[in-house]
Specification:
Layout lengths: L4 E10 L2 E11 L4 E5 L6 H8 L7 E6 L2 E3 L4 H6 L2 E4 L11 H5 L6 E2 L6 E2 L1 H14 L16 H14 L4 E5 L7 H16 L3 E6 L2 H7 L2 E6 L2 E7 L5 H8 L2 H15 L1
Parallel strand pairs: 3-10, 3-11, 6-9, 9-10
Antiparallel strand pairs: 1-2, 1-4, 4-5, 7-8, 11-12
Length: 259
């Protein structure tokens, strides 16, 4: 099976700063690839390359088996890669359905006489949300009145509706409570089950492990390792995320000082 996305030895530098070095992983249809790491690990740089915001300096990015170098986010979107950033890029005072279609509003009429097709917009939005199990009472309500989890779910449904093959989610659960995070992760699993390839960026292994099929761990721009789910359990994933070796060395050092 040809991966939807494959990165092979990707590197990115900003002057003398190496933001990414020799990073490799794959994103397959119907799977979730989790990218984990603390702040400064290189997660943001990687997704910006995948999303077309930046271009890589070294290595190769392949989409559907073909080498590509995106010139813009629109270029990435045309290749079926949709990115949902942490700030969501929504207009809080605008209705849910207007945010859903933002930039691609349905119209009726011809030429300069075209009008916004509000009825179709509301109907399609409600149906698209329902297909992902999201039941909103009123798609006319301002999107700013929704909870953080609900706004994330609307953004996921929008990407799925507009034909994304790969969905990149930037820290979708970072600012959410336990219940809201659970709702978002359920919709991540539903997107995966619909055959999308999902890239989940997170610093929380407890959120990544239940939905993840593959785990790429980054530290200061370099890969700590890539694991299939069968190769690592939650405890080991958490230990590596927490810098287990460094913590063990520190504990040993502290004991030496005490004695």
């Amino acid at each position: 099976m040809t991966p939807l996305i494959e990165v092979a030895g990707i590197g990115k530098s900003y002057g003398s700063v190496h933001a990414l070095r020799e990073v490799s992983t794959v994103v397959n249809a119907g799977e979730v690839t989790c990218v984990l790491g603390d702040n400064g690990a290189g997660k943001s740089t990687l997704i910006k390359i995948l999303a077309g915001v930046h271009q890589h300096d070294t290595g190769e990015l392949r989409v559907g088996g073909e080498p590509v170098r995106f010139s813009s986010p629109r270029d990435a979107l045309d290749h079926g890669i949709a990115t949902v950033y942490q700030d969501l890029a929504v207009v809080p005072l605008m209705s849910v359905w207007r945010n859903f279609f933002l930039g691609s509003e349905p119209t009726i009429g011809f030429g300069p006489l075209r009008l916004l097709d509000r009825g179709r917009g509301r109907r399609v939005t409600k149906q698209a949300l329902a297909e992902l199990g999201i039941d909103l009472r009123d798609v006319e309500q301002p999107v700013g009145t929704l909870s953080g989890g609900e706004r994330q779910c609307v953004a996921i449904a929008r990407a799925v509706h507009f034909g994304a093959k790969v969905l990149i989610l930037d820290e979708p659960t970072a600012a959410l409570g336990v219940k809201q995070a659970g709702i978002v992760l359920r919709h991540v699993a539903q997107a995966r089950d619909r055959g999308l390839g999902v890239v989940l960026i997170t610093h929380n292994p407890h959120h990544a492990y239940p939905v993840g099929d593959r785990f790429l761990l980054l530290n200061r721009g370099a890969p700590l390792g890539t694991y299939e789910k069968s190769e690592i359990d939650l405890g080991e994933l958490t230990r590596q995320m927490a810098g287990g070796a460094e913590l063990a060395a520190l504990e040993h050092e502290l004991r030496s000082v005490e004695t």
